[in-house]
Design brief:
Layout (H helix, E strand, L loop, with lengths): L4 H11 L10 H15 L6 E5 L10 E3 L4 E8 L12 E3 L1 H7 L6 E7 L2 E7 L6 E5 L12 E2 L4 E7 L9 E6 L6 E6 L15 E9 L5 E11 L2 E7 L11 E8 L4 E3 L9 E8 L6 E13 L4 E6 L3 E2 L5 E2 L8 E2 L3 H18 L4 H21 L15
Parallel strand pairs: 4-5
Antiparallel strand pairs: 1-19, 2-6, 3-19, 5-6, 7-18, 8-11, 9-10, 10-18, 11-17, 12-15, 12-18, 13-14, 13-17, 14-16, 20-21, 20-22
Helix pairs in contact: 1-4, 2-4, 4-5
Amino acid sequence: MIYTQSDIEQRVNGGIQGKIDMLINKENTLNASARELFNKVDLRSALRRANLAPNLFNGIFPYQCPTDLKGYALVDLPAQAKRFDGDWELTTPEQFLRLNGSKKSLCAIDDYNGTRVLLLDSEVDSKSVTVAELDSLTSGGGTWEAFSADSDSVATDNSDFIKGAGSLKWNITASGGTTAGLKNDGLNTLDITNYLGGTSAFFVWVKINSTTNLTNWILRFGTDSSNYYSKTITAQADGTAFVNGWNLLKFDISSLTETGTVTDTTINYTALYMTKTAGKISESDYKFDWLVLKKGVVNYVKYYSKYPWQTSAGSYLENSTNTTDLLNADTDEFELLVKQGVVNARRELAFPEGEIKSAEDDLKDAKKEYEMNNPSMSKVMVTDYYVY
């Protein structure tokens, strides 16, 4: 059975003796009731399975978190095909970072600055090749140098880095151009034939002094500075905006722009640079570290959604705005939503205390029966005070 906003409105109206138009805003009351029930109960129909973004990579920890994930209600991170990870263990982001790759099949949800990020440490057996550690001027072969007149003072930094023994630092000059970064036209030859298309991506860490007037980051890789592929990104690997400090960038090896003709078996040129406004000048302490090419594995994320509704076109909604919007509810779940709506409506309309309590008891009993028949599949968060 498919239920709409109109269906639940009619049923709730029956539970309050036809007084639904006396509510301050009946749509708001129905939306609040649906959100409240979805928050309290892990409903079968709230289960969703979405593609993990980006694909699963060994050694890459941050991933995009579904925007409609309810709290920490993760169920599983299943593989599309062969499964490498066993049962995933959910922990706090603090413990995840403390363990720092020492425990596999570990997941966490990190909340900060109004954003949510999935942290995953996987055993997945993904192909990987380190292009350059970026801990010396000759890392990976050739010599790293300024990409344009807007960047200079390229040097090694052995005190501020992510991996290996250091990073490469550089400054933005006062030239007033629109690009700044590093390049290398003598890298050790790399064959990318088995990485093109599909699930592969370049990853690199960049330290940003200031995101002001920074438009995007661009990666070029090819046979030489006249024959190369390029990819432009406008967010971090986990989908969040660039921030001041260290950022993990991901450049998918798909939908590439080709300049000239690239020989895929002999890649030895690359450039990493920002597009900026002409007014972004005279800034120091930009850094790159650990340029690596990885082939990912397609995985899903299964979770309980906090969105009770869908449009008729199938878009998930936190709040309904149309009488034809669909409830994410089966028949027994629809009855729970009706009971929650009746409770909230009777409270708002100041029904006699006995009638409110009767509705509350009815809802409580129905929820208890539902949860006995449909136990939650959400993972239980586990953490230790000490790591032994």
